[in-house]
Amino acid sequence: MRKVQFYPYIDQIHTSYKSLIEQPPAGYTFIGVPRSERSRWIDGLRKYSILRKAYKVFLRLFNTTKIVEYSFQGPSMHEADIVYSFGTFYKGTKPFVVDLLDSPYSLAGNNYHLFIRNRMNIEKYLAAENCKYVICTHDTSLEFMKKHFSKEVQKKLVLIPQAVKPISFKKSKSPRFRALFMGSINNPDDFYLKGGLEAIYAFQALGKENAELIVRCKVPESVKNLVRKSNNITLLDEILPFDKVIELYTSSDMLLMPSHQYVLMATLESLYFGLPIVALDTYAVKDFVKDGYNGFLVKPSSQILAYKDPIYPTNLRSAEFISEIRAPDPILISNLADRIRTLIKNSKLRKKMGDNARKLATTVFSIEERNKKLKNIFDTMISS
Predict the structure, then answer these.
(1) pLDDT of 45 above 80
(2) Do residues 214 and 262 both lie within one domain?
(3) Tens-place pLDDT, residues 125-134
């Protein structure tokens, strides 16, 4: 059994990577160290707005990725055969692979300007002899890497989509058409970033359709007042047991996710449960939702100038971006409502799209497919 070190730490990782550790490729097992005290201390400092501002000023003045590298640095485990670096710099001597979950900007602390100014240093890191592969998890990231890096780095690029963990389930039927919106219970800005406001306005624009919207997300008080008189919108902003979350998926007819960038887990889970998806055609969403195949893509609002900024999507959590998306575009709302209405009226299309969604989940985004590709590159690294 070969050992793969999950770097820099193996705990408190993105949800999608838990299945990788629990169900690794045949012949391999993942090992790792827990999050260091240094990382926990740095995370604690990030809670203070004055320190975040000071950090941004420092980056503008010195244009260095050294702090990012320091923040996400872990020990190299002697017993590991190879290293699986999760979106950060591994400076050891073992053969390693870099996984870029969301975008290549992760190598510069998700800072666009820092990435551009340090691109040549990042190039040297990726071109190092012991860096064997660079994993892109979607086509958008892959195309970005081809645009910004040399042929030497491009030869190492491999597309391995994230996988959804199999879950036993049985579809159920609600009394009326049900749309589901999934967000975070913890992050207050998540509601706006994932298009919660657009989802609610679009559903209110449907009029007297026999349909309901379930919003599973932490919802701002001002929005609660907005839907208080709506008898077709239910807000669930408490933590639910996993079996109750599964019930939400199995009793729903579609996922409504007009997010301002792709939403990984809710999208993968919806594909697995065979739900058509109505989404905005924003960053990387088209890599999961094929317009007319497993859902509908709606053109985002032209009123949001932050989309046109070169730093998008690294500006998603900026005050300017949040401010812009709090005023939904009436044209966008109308277009979203039209797509929802189409799915309400056309049960055959709804089933076809749901079947296609399920097909994507069990092929392109399956653990079997992911592990087959990973085993291939791991075997190559071991034998070289």
Answers:
(1) no
(2) yes
(3) 999 999 999 9
What's the pTM value of the predicted model, to 2 decimals? 0.90
Residues 308, 288 share a domain: yes
- Domain assignment present for 19: yes
By the 10 Å C-beta count (0-12 exposed, 13-18 middle, 19+ buried), 323 is classed as exposed
Q: Stretch 234-263: mean pLDDT, rounded?
A: 93
Q: Amino acid identity, residue 205? A: A
The per-residue pLDDT for 89 is: 86
Q: Does 251 have pLDDT greater than 70? A: yes
Q: Tell me which residue range forms the domain holding 290.
A: 177-362
Looking at the fold, whether 147 and 257 belong to one and the same domain comes out as no
CATH number of the domain that residue 304 is part of: 3.40.50.2000
Side by side, the strands of the sheet bearing 254-257 are: 233-236, 211-216, 177-182, 254-257, 277-280, 295-298
Place 348 in a pLDDT band, splitting at 50, 70 and 90. very high
- Do 220 and 156 lie in a common domain? no
Contact 22, 105 (CB under 8 A): no
**E-strand stretches of the chain:** 2-7, 28-31, 82-86, 96-100, 131-136, 157-159, 177-182, 211-216, 233-236, 254-257, 277-280, 295-298
Whether residue 171 is contained in a domain is answered as: no
- The DSSP code sequence of 306-372 is GGGSTTTTTTTTSHHHHHHHTS--HHHHHHHHHHHHHHHH-HHHHHHHHHHHHHHHHTTT-HHHHHH
For residue 286, the 8-state DSSP code is: G
**Residues 303 and 185 both lie in one domain:** yes
pLDDT value for 166:
87
Position 47 scores a pLDDT of: 59
Same domain, 229 and 108: no
Dihedral angle at the C-alpha atoms of 72, 77, 81, 85, nearest 10 degrees?
-10
* Segment 179-190 mean pLDDT: 88
Domain assignment present for 129: yes
In angstroms, the CA 236 to CA 133 distance is 42
pLDDT score of 13: 83
Per the domain annotation, does 308 fall within a domain? Answer: yes
Number of folded domains in the chain?
A: 2
Q: How far apart are CA 23 and CA 6, in angstroms?
A: 14
The domain that contains 109 carries what CATH number? 3.40.50
